[in-house]
Design brief:
A hairpin with a 4-residue loop joins strand 18 and strand 19. By secondary structure, this protein is mainly beta. The chain is globular and about 50 Å long. The model is unreliable at about 1-10 (pLDDT under 50). About 10% of the residues lie in helices and about 50% in strands. It contains three helices and 23 strands. The protein has helices at about 5-15, 30-35, 295-310, and strands spanning about 20-25, 45, 55-65, 65-75, 80-90, 95-100, 100-105, 115-120, 120-125, 135-140, 145-155, 160-165, 170-175, 185-190, 200, 205-210, 210-215, 220, 225-235, 240-250, 255-265, 275-280, 285-295. The protein has a single domain, classed as 5 Propeller (Tachylectin-2, Chain A), CATH 2.115.10.20. The strands form five sheets. Strands 3, 4, 5, 6 and 7 form a five-stranded antiparallel sheet that branches.
């Protein structure tokens, strides 16, 4: 079979190269991104890389005056991922540092996308563990490391990158379903209560496109005018190639409309992709993000051995 030079490059990259993601904090506001300001290397303090692992799916959460960064912690040797959290320190001069990380929500199946949020004084997590076949909500027992199962929100639904938020007296949730359309369709659900019955929106899936369908972070609300913004992955050329920002023009129980306003491209050392942006409030001058480069040879070999071992077992 003849392969063009471009297809040969793609084939060998898929076979011998793997993504090396990392997470970090950037000193730039969500409003700046929406207005078109670009992130540079000088803006970001990356988490120190760890041989044999990559870090992705960055999410911020504040509790008791402390800022935490939650993320996926992928192990090349086992070809699986758990969740971790690290306290973020910012001094008076704006310099960012990280404390030692802790493990979060340890389970026997792959986990990622650790979206953390609060409702009625309870801190919740809705991580992606589609291998379980259910979309399951957890609540904090000992923050940030110990959590317990709270409720299955969608039973028999292998949800990917579920992103709930509260708006106009209802709970809303964007989520994709594991399978053929996980990167090019996003569903919309709504409920009166977080632990109540979730209904699929009549316009769902509300986006059918590899450009921006799959979620890429929490919903951002501009407090000045109440405008909502959705972050989606641009997977048109590669998984998680960039992040697209959409302005939500209309959202109610029968209608949905969004408009693309900006795209955030990867840059610098991690120039192969950027697929999660986490925001706090519009008063915050920082965001969390992840981005990727190609992994080094020893990590590639470890991952290939793990995949081979799994197939032979």
């Amino acid at each position: 079979m003849y392969l063009s030079k471009e297809k040969k490059t793609s084939f060998f990259r898929k076979l011998f190269f793997h993504d090396k993601w990392n997470v970090g904090i950037a000193k730039i506001s969500a409003k700046d991104l929406i207005d078109g300001k670009k992130i540079t290397d000088n803006d970001v303090t990356w988490l120190p890389e760890k041989p044999g692992f990559y870090f992705a799916d960055s999410f911020l959460f504040k509790k008791d005056g402390k800022l935490w960064l939650f993320y996926e912690n992928f192990n090349y040797k086992t070809n699986s991922a758990g969740l971790s959290a690290v306290e973020v320190l910012i001094n008076d001069r704006g310099k960012i540092a990280y404390r030692e990380s802790v493990d979060v929500l340890l389970k026997n199946f792959h986990q990622s996308y650790p979206l953390i949020f609060e409702d009625n004084g309870i801190i919740y997590a809705l991580p992606e563990h589609s291998e379980s076949g259910n979309l399951t909500l957890y609540e904090s027992v000992e923050f940030p490391h110990k959590w317990k199962k709270s409720k299955v929100l969608l039973e028999g639904f292998a949800g990917v990158d579920a992103t709930p938020f509260k708006y106009n007296g209802l709970w809303w949730m964007f989520v994709s379903e594991l399978g053929e359309h996980e990167n090019n369709e996003v569903e919309l659900y709504f409920a009166k209560e977080l632990k109540g019955k979730w209904k699929k929106h009549p316009k769902s899936p509300v986006r059918r496109s590899a450009r921006g369908a799959r979620m890429a972070g929490n919903i951002y609300e501009d407090k000045e005018n109440g405008t909502l913004y959705r972050f989606g992955q641009n997977c048109t050329e590669t998984y998680g190639g960039a992040t697209v920002i959409f302005k939500i023009e209309r959202l109610n129980e029968t209608e949905y409309k969004e408009t693309e306003v900006e795209q955030i491209k990867p840059f610098g050392k991690y120039s192969e992709g950027l697929h999660t942006i986490s925001t706090l409030t519009d008063e915050s001058q920082i965001i969390a993000l992840d981005a990727k480069r190609w992994a080094d040879s020893p990590e590639v070999i470890n991952k290939l051995l793990a995949i081979l071992k799994k197939k032979l077992s």
